[in-house]
What we know:
By secondary structure, this protein is mainly α. It is built from 6 helices and no strands.
Amino acid sequence: MRLRHSRHRIQPVDTSDDASDLLAETVADWRPDPEQIYSRTELQQILIRALESLPDRYRLIFILRDMQGFSIDETAEMLGLRPTTIKTRLLRARLLLRKKLGRFFRAPAGSRMSTDALDLQM
């Protein structure tokens, strides 16, 4: 009974200056440091350049589908194309982007597709 009773005893919180100093030291700063900001900016520029280098017919479909979230049917209707055409162009856009971005990012060792095999001349 004593053990049960002692478990529920309320402990006072230490509100001295030492406790607030300790709390301030243990709270991490979540703001990105300048290196993280630069890396993020550089990554954005790489992605924008890769997207801009795509032919218009692929870039438009990639943006509508993968960035704005429209369905295959919605994209086909907007562009006046067949859904199979949208699927084909989307695949080609993704493969071209993978190839263009491959030189900036290494593919994982166990990846199924090699960017060298994706030499698309569009």
